[in-house]
Specification:
The structure is a single chain. The protein is an alpha+beta fold. It has two domains: 117 residues, Pseudouridine synthase I, catalytic domain, N-terminal subdomain (Alpha-Beta Plaits); 109 residues, Alpha-Beta Plaits. It is 21% helix and 38% strand. The protein is built from five helices and twelve strands. The strands form two sheets. Strands 1, 2, 3, 4, 5, 8, 9, 10, 11 and 12 form a ten-stranded mixed sheet that branches. The longest helix has 14 residues. The protein is globular, with a radius of gyration of 19 Å. The two termini are 23 Å apart. 27% of the residues are buried.
Length: 234
C-alpha cells in the first residue's frame, strides 16, 4: 500500500528543518510499528516521499507524506498509533491510501496557498504594491542556479494575490497563491519584490494544489480511502 499522511506543523516546531521532520517521521513510524517498506541495496532506506519542503520558521495547515508499506495495513489503526507517536506541534489529520503512480507528491503539486502577515507599511500601501505586481508584464528577481546568479521572471507564478487587514494583529495579511511548476516560488521571494519594502512577520501554508487541466484538487482528495485521526485516539 501507499499511505498518504496529511498533517499540520505549528508552534515552536516550525523552527526545525525539513530533514529533521523526516527523521521525526521515521522514528514515529517505528514507534507506531507501521510496517514501512525499505529500499534495496547496501544501505536500505524507508520508502518515504515528502511533498514540497517547508522553510524553517513557516507553519502549515496541510503537509503531506507518502509512505510505502511492506504489507496491507488498517488505516484507522495506523492513524491512531502514529498520531499518538508524533511530537507536539506535528498533528496528524488523516491517513489515506493512494493508487500507485509514477508521479511523486513533490512533482504533482502545482501551486500553494499562503497566508503572509507583513508589517512596515499600512494596508493601502501594501494593496497598491500588490496591484502593481498584478498589472506588470514581468516581475524579475535574482536567483542562484548551479552556483551562478540568474534573472528569473516570477510573474507567471503570481497566480492570485489578495490583501486584507488581519483582525488579531491589526497588520496587513496577504493571501497568495504561488506557482511551483517551473521553480517553486517561495514566499520570501514574493515579499522581496514588494515596494515599498515590508517585513514578513508570519507565514503559513494553507493549501497545496494538484492541477489537472481545468480542475484542481488537494493531495488528500486523491486518496481512495481514508481514516481521520482524532486526538482522543490512542
Amino acid at each position: 500500500m501507499i499511505l498518504r499522511l496529511r498533517f499540520s506543523k505549528q508552534g515552536k516546531i516550525r523552527f526545525i528543518g525539513h530533514r529533521d521532520v523526516a527523521r521525526i517521521f521515521e522514528r514515529s513510524l517505528r514507534v507506531a510499528k507501521v510496517p514501512v517498506a525499505y529500499s534495496e541495496g547496501f544501505s536500505p532506506r524507508p520508502k518515504l516521499s515528502f511533498g514540497l519542503a517547508l522553510s524553517v520558521g513557516y507553519e502549515s495547515d496541510n503537509e503531506y507524506l507518502d509512505v510505502s508499506t511492506a504489507v496491507d495495513v488498517d488505516l484507522a489503526e495506523v492513524a491512531a498509533r502514529l498520531g499518538a507517536a508524533l511530537p507536539d506541534g506535528i498533528d496528524l489529520i488523516e491517513v489515506g491510501e493512494v493508487a500507485r503512480s509514477r508521479t511523486s507528491l513533490m512533482e504533482a503539486v502545482t501551486s500553494c496557498d499562503w497566508a503572509i502577515d507583513v508589517d512596515g507599511q499600512d494596508l493601502d500601501t501594501v494593496q497598491a504594491s500588490v496591484d502593481r505586481l498584478l498589472a506588470a508584464d514581468r516581475v524579475m528577481i535574482e536567483r542562484e542556479r548551479k552556483g551562478k546568479p540568474v534573472r528569473d521572471d516570477i510573474r507567471p507564478d503570481l497566480l492570485s494575490l489578495k490583501v486584507f487587514m488581519h483582525t488579531e494583529t491589526a497588520t496587513p495579511r496577504i493571501h497568495a497563491e504561488l506557482g511551483t511548476e517551473s521553480r517553486s516560488l517561495r514566499p520570501a521571494e514574493f515579499v522581496s519584490v514588494l515596494e515599498p519594502p515590508v517585513r514578513a512577520t508570519s507565514v503559513r501554508r494553507l493549501h497545496q494544489w494538484i492541477s489537472d487541466g481545468m480542475t484542481r484538487i488537494e493531495p488528500h482528495e486523491a486518496v481512495v480511502s481514508r481514516a481521520a485521526h482524532t486526538k482522543c485516539a490512542s
